[in-house]
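Hi D.,

Good news: the full-assembly prediction came through. Inputs first.
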Amino acid sequence: DTAVSQTPKYLVTQMGNDKSIKCEQNLGHDTMYWYKQDSKKFLKIMFSYNNKELIINETVPNRFSPKSPDKAHLNLHINSLELGDSAVYFCASTSGPFYGLAGGEQFFGPGTRLTVL
Amino acid sequence: ELKVEQNPLFLSMQEGKNYTIYCNYSTTSDRLYWYRQDPGKSLESLFVLLSNGAVKQEGRLMASLDTKARLSTLHITAAVHDLSATYFCAVASQKLVFGQGTRLTINP
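Then the structure:
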């Protein structure tokens, strides 16, 4: 069984379009994340939800809006796509948030490669 | 703000040799992760280091953590081609901050 799954795996779209990426984890974890990996392989956190509540919101354009309908799902909607949004987006989950010893091993999804033309 | 720096960023080595990847970070943390990423793939967790002096080993890879020096090392012993990948360290505060990654190529 896949622990953290994402759909779609590849997404090719035109500038100005709106798109969504979905993520689901079956690990029973409380905390989920979205990361962006750019063309130079640099990984940066975008958002984190703990039990459906937003706990980390990095400096990300308002065009990006995460939604967590329940603690097993975290979706990412992107409005008015721009060329600079092209990247690989990874979803991840942990059994708790990172601070102190509450957090645990982090499991990553397979990634969604977004290409904006 | 927490900053994490890895070096080297690129490493090409021969099979059978030993080498070390370094991970320095700027502020206090008690949790450090090492990940492996193959081209076009996701991140695979290698080690979680939770305390000063922690050492973990898996096969030809050994990771250690010195929280006083704010330094972690990933040591590769007798490298084999299958270890070619990009290796990331990541340091936890209230979020996980990644190093730039070290692209390791092991030549036969």
